[in-house]
Design a protein that fits this description.
Length: 393
């Protein structure tokens, strides 16, 4: 793509914040300290998790950059950034979460394959850009369309980057056309993050943001948008980011037997405490995040200090001083919710969080029940251990 290039090595990587926990250096994958997540409802860009599959692309001339829209349509186009800037600008607050968030805990049950994420492979940002539904109207696709006249049913996002999984080809993923053309789904072609132009790590100059869906579908560094008849056949749609039962291993796996992951399940995690903690004072404020996919709000977060035998309901909020009501028009439907509970531990405790969304979906109790060989969607109860005093744990 003119104006945007994909390096073949890692010699031109952008700077990153020194406090990030690096899980993979090349390609660069990192997450912030868990405590940083609950310090701000909108995650600062420096502390937003970094998920990459190859060297970071470089814009050498924004004036000649174009994103092509083609495929099963009658009026293909190439759009400049000026064309996209002319469209109505929307602001969407949305949490993106890697499907591998909390993989490290799942790997303690049985070995899994993938980047070893703790609980911070997610972040909440204010994204600005054009709605994909508006962009697709420029090529003759009406809003709320499920199929084009030429038979297109899916919208494929193709990046400019180079991935070893694609044999040096670009990262790509797709969403259904009906989702792409629904203005209420808030799918964006985003060019700003938290009020500033996207930085290189997060997709400059243009990326897809698909709220409520695993981060793997929000493709960065867009090169083209293809209208296709079947879902994307790329590696990350067909040979990855699928969830298998615990009985499946690398000898008997059949990738075609499972659908690509889209909406993420209800999730919560405690951010104010590490996995093991020795504290002088037993009076503890437990803080963390809860989030569910598909725009489903958080109905309740329960906290236990006895491993799940008894529970207290935590308070929930998005913005300080504003009561959170799930599915209320004043709440951010695509964004996480913070929770807080004051508890007292006398000696030792296993502190647990468990979230319930508005559809009454609840986190499973045990990670063993949802173990899968790729270590995706670990949404089991989040557990941390506390001892009051000076003894070793």
């Amino acid at each position: 793509m003119p104006g945007l290039k994909a390096p073949s090595d890692y010699s031109q990587e952008p700077p990153r914040h020194p406090s990030l926990r690096i899980n993979s250096k090349e390609p660069f994958n990192a997450e912030p300290p868990r405590s940083a997540l609950v310090s701000s409802y909108v995650t600062p860009v420096d502390f937003f998790y970094k998920r990459n599959h190859g060297p970071i692309p470089i814009v050498d001339d924004l004036q000649i950059y174009r994103v092509s829209i083609k495929g099963l349509i009658e009026n293909p186009k190439e759009l400049s950034m000026s064309d996209i800037w002319k469209l109505p600008k929307y602001m969407v607050t949305a949490t993106l979460q890697c499907a591998g968030n909390r993989r490290t805990a799942m790997s303690k049950t049985r070995t899994v394959k993938g980047v070893g994420w703790d609980i911070a492979a997610l972040g909440n940002a204010v994204w600005c850009g054009a709605k994909l539904a508006d962009v697709l109207e420029l090529v003759g696709i009406s809003k709320l369309s499920s199929i084009t006249q030429a038979g297109g049913k899916h919208v494929e996002f193709v990046s400019i980057d180079k991935c070893k999984e694609e044999k040096g080809g670009p990262y790509k993923a797709s969403i259904p056309l009906i989702q792409a053309t629904n203005p209420e789904a808030d799918v964006l072609l985003a060019y700003e993050m938290n009020g500033e132009p996207l930085n290189r790590d997060h997709g400059y100059p243009l990326r897809a943001v698909v709220p409520g869906v695993i981060g793997a579908r929000s493709v960065k560094w867009l090169d083209s948008i293809n209208i296709i008849a079947e879902e994307c056949q790329g590696f990350f749609m067909q040979k990855d980011y699928k969830m298998f039962p615990p009985s499946v291993n690398w000898d008997n796996i059949d990738w075609s037997s499972r659908r690509p992951l889209m909406d993420f399940p209800v999730q919560s995690a405690i951010c104010s405490l590490e996995d093991t903690n020795v504290l002088k004072d037993g009076k503890i404020t437990v803080k963390g995040y809860a989030v569910s996919g598909g725009g489903r709000g958080i109905e309740r977060v329960d906290v236990s200090i006895d491993g799940g035998k008894t529970w207290v309901e935590a308070s929930r909020y998005q913005k300080a001083g504003v009561p959170y009501i799930a599915d209320d028009s004043h709440s951010d439907k695509w964004a996480w919710v913070f929770f807080e509970a004051n508890v007292e531990v006398l000696h030792t405790a296993e502190i647990v969080s468990k979230a319930v969304d508005v559809a009454a979906n609840v986190q499973p109790e045990r990670v063993e029940e949802i173990w899968n060989l790729r270590g995706v969607l670990n949404t089991s109860w989040h557990r941390v251990h506390v001892r009051v005093g000076h003894s070793n744990m």
